[in-house]
Amino acid sequence: MVSTPPPSLLQRCQRLLFGPPRDPLAPETRQHITLVAFFAWVGLGADGLSSSAYGPEEAFKALGTHTHLSLYLALATAFTVILISLAYNQVIELFPNGGGGYKVATALLGPYAGLVSGAALIVDYVLTIAISVASGVDAVFSSGPAAWQSGKLTTELLLTALLVFLNLRGVQESIKILTPIFLGFVVTHVFLIVYGVGVRAGDLGMVVSDTVRETGTLTHQMGWVFTASLFLKAYSLGGGTYTGIEAVSNNVNVLVEPRVHTGRWTMAYMAVSLAFTAAGIILLYLLWNAVPSSNGETLNAVVFRSVIGSLHLPAGVSSVALTVTLVLEGLLLYVAANTGLLGGPAVLANMAVDKWVPNQFGLLSNRLVTKHGIVLMGLTAIAILLWSHGNVDLLAVLYSINVFLTFTMSLLGLCTYWWRHRSEQPHWLSRLSLSLVGFIVTFSILIVTLVEKFYEGGWVTALITSSVVGLCLLIRQHYRTTNRLMRQIDQELAGSPEGPVDTPPALDPDAPTAVFMISRSRGAGMHTILWVQRLFPNHFRNFVFLSVGAVDTRSYGGEGTLDELRVEVQEACAYYVNFCHRHGIAAKAIEAYGIDRTYELTKLALQARDEFPNCIFFASKLIFVNDNWMTRILHNQTALAMQRILHLQGLFMVILPMKV
Predict the structure, then answer these.
(1) Kind and range of the H or E element at 615?
(2) What is the C-alpha to C-alpha distance for residues 363 and 597, in angstroms, rounded to an integer?
(3) Sorting pLDDT into bands at 50, 70 and 90, what band is 1?
(4) How distant, in Å, are the alpha carbons of 50, 181, 182, 543 from that of 57?
């Protein structure tokens, strides 16, 4: 019977706050943490739907006094949402394991294009959290007294920290808590848009004729170039409206099977709801003659006040109705911030597989969430809020540039794919045309936004994204150098696999036993074995190998499968056992699988201790010639952690260095 140490006070507090651990190997666990289309719409679609709180306003205000052009703007907005959504359905189909823009660019345009897209997505998701929280607080505080304004930043920081906590508990937990807010927003805004447009439906004919007449007058006075430029500028600066559409394709791996089918339904919900809401709000601005307020109210607050006022409700009821609407709008923006804490860690996990970021970002917590990514995204969003003081106008500029950089690269990748596979796909021309139109639209918005807003803060986005790219290049260079050295060690020390012997030596539980903690590198394992034989010649009669298959994003709902992980671990164990048997040494292997390699190794070590009381533990550790903080972050410290744990248990453990 293996005796495991009782949980510490810290572990008990963690379980109380974040919930009990989940077993990644249990069949029902995967079903519990995946999302059906409706909850995916809530968790991933809120980002897009919430952008109607600031995107249409940015576009409408950019028209200045020429508000008649907003009729075209409403139509163009709905068209663009549908266009990008249909294009991203192709991404879901081609990349059903998730990854979205990063995977598209990597697979179809090359690894460095993928790096740029991934870096843009990371920055984009950080800004998703920051701008959503800031916009939500703005929307709620705009309905309150002026004295509230001084507490906005503190509120934003606290809400961001709370969202990080909810996501560390699990994906479904955070979404279920936020679902009532999402539904409340949908119900109130659909009602206000339908009612607001319906009340003024009789004016639509006059609005259309006035729009055509005023457009002709403006064109005659200022020329087509001025009119087209003004419209394109407003259309581009409202690009924040389309943010969040890519979230589904980035997180297909969290959807229930069949993923592609669920992803398409989720995308349909998102596209229809966003197109209706964004275009409807712009139409409300036009029909109700909305004018920006000088007292800090959002344009949505102005127009909703007018619409609710036309209901002829008692003054107190009207005030409460407006407050509820704005609070729900603000709270939905808070729900949208959750997308950043779902999508950002997912992108980091995919980039960790390709060695652009530290391996730790691919690890899962005992609640099966990428905790390192969640914490990083949350802390970075807090830093952005502190730097910008929650200025939504500034954050919107930073946000929209990276969004359309990712859109553009993804659609260019799709164009490349359909052209290369035109002889294999019967409907390649229609899909290529859709992707090409989407590319032209998103690239145009990207260029206009970058030019118009570069000196107003756009350069900050370029600088931050470039810095992330540069850091990722350094990280990958280190990993490539280390992997090359490890391959050389494998070639020198690890021979070809040997088959089992017919009569292996028998184990003696009372004899001196060497217990090895092995990893994926067979060269490192052989290095440890050879050093033990050199340091303790003919002393140990048993060799026991402990191997843990770390269940991470790659092996759990990602690119790989748990079955492949088991095969990899079992083959490694068989390699060492057969090697020992061939050389007359009694040996066995003990394997385990779990989220936390240190925790699982501790259980295996105690099991080995109980079976072989006269044992000493051995492990190898990479020692870098130029050791620094970066190498310590990029490589796990499992050997040191295990040495401390076993020493506290009264067991002996020796770490054998391996210089690289």
Answers:
(1) strand 615-623
(2) 10
(3) very low
(4) 12, 22, 21, 70
Pick from 353, 175, 348: nearest CA to 255 = 175
- State pLDDT tens for residues 240-273: 677 777 788 877 877 887 888 888 999 898 889 9
Residues 554 and 353: beta-carbon distance below 8 Å: yes
Amino acid letter, residue 611: E
- State the Cα–Cα distance between residues 183 and 621, nearest whole angstrom: 52
Q: Among the CATH numbers 1.20.1740.10, 3.90.380.10, 1.10.357.10, 2.160.10.10, which is that of 31-398?
A: 1.20.1740.10
Torsion angle of the four alpha carbons 253, 259, 264, 267, in this order, in degrees rounded to the nearest 10: -30
| Of 543, 547, 491, 493, nearest in space to 518 by CA | 547
Class of domain 494-659: alpha beta
Within 13 A of 585's CA, how many CA atoms are on the CB side?
A: 25
Strand 653-659 versus strand 586-594 pairing type: unpaired
What own/partner pairs with CB < 8 Å and gap ≥ 24 does 456-463 have? 456/394, 456/397, 457/394, 457/397, 457/398, 458/397, 458/398, 458/401, 460/398, 461/123, 461/397, 461/398, 461/401, 461/402, 462/401
Do residues 42 and 28 make contact, with C-beta atoms less than 8 angstroms apart? no
CA 203 to chain CA mean position, Å: 45
Q: Name the H helices within 100-201.
A: 100-109, 111-141, 152-169, 171-199
For the chain, give every residue range classified as CATH 3.40.50.620: 494-659
Q: Counting beta carbons within 10 angstroms of the beta carbon of residue 295, is it exposed (0 to 12), middle (13 to 18) or buried (19 or more)?
A: exposed
φ, ψ of residue 66 to 5 degrees: the values are -95, 55
What residue type is 618 in one-letter code? F
pLDDT of 19: 66
Looking at the chain, the domain(s) classified CATH 1.20.1740.10 span 31-398
Mean of all residue pLDDT scores within the chain: 84
Phi and psi torsions of 548, nearest 5°: -120, 125
Residue 298: partners with Cβ closer than 8 Å, 6 or more residues away: 53, 54, 57, 138, 139, 142, 326
pTM of the model: 0.82
The whole-number pLDDT of residue 255 equals 83
Residues near 188 by Cβ (< 8 Å), separated by ≥ 6? 324, 325, 328
- Give the per-residue SS3 of 8-48: CHHHHHHHHHHCCCCCCCCHHHHHHHCECHHHHHHHHHHHH
H or E element: which one contains 250? helix 247-250
What is d(CA 66, CA 230) in angstroms, rounded to the nearest whole number? Answer: 9
The DSSP-derived string for 529-581 is HHHHHHHSTTT-SEEEEEEEEE--TTTSSSSS-HHHHHHHHHHHHHHHHHHHH
* Sign of the alpha-carbon torsion through 363, 364, 369, 374: negative
459-502 confidence digits (pLDDT tens): 888 899 999 999 999 999 999 988 888 888 888 776 766 788 88
How far is residue 137's CA from residue 232's CA, in Å, rounded to a whole number? 30
φ/ψ of 235, rounded to 5, equals -60, -40
CB 215 within 8 A of CB 69: yes
Report the pLDDT averaged over residues 441-466.
84
Q: What share of the chain is helix, strand, coil (3-state, %, to 5)?
A: 70, 5, 20
